[in-house]
Amino acid sequence: MKKLVGAVSHHEREVEELRADRKFAVAYLQVAMECLDNPDERAGGLIALRAISEAYGGLGAVAAEAGISRESLYRALSPKGNPTLKTLIAVLKTLGLRLTVTEAPRTAETESAEELTAAS
Questions:
Q1: CATH class of 10-101
Q2: What are the boundaries of each domain within the chain?
Q3: What is the pLDDT of residues 60-79, one digit of tens each?
């Protein structure tokens, strides 16, 4: 297969854009982290955190500063990864970020659960 001259992979361009604009990187990660709630979309949130880790020092440097092995970080931030809360917090802290909590949008499912709780 012939490589195109001047072509840049999507991932390389993504990392460059994340590195160039910190506010964009934070907004990107905020949206991607919403995917962690849904098992079918969880990979998106982990891959986004991995891309931001690559943009801000690389996985090896982030892992070292977070106090975890590079191999563990690669596994944790893979599409099938299942990082612990400790790992997520350590990586986010290394990147100068933190977890926050917001109220989830109300759905028919949550309203039904609240009605059952109130009735008991």
A1: mainly alpha
A2: 10-101
A3: 999 999 999 999 999 999 99
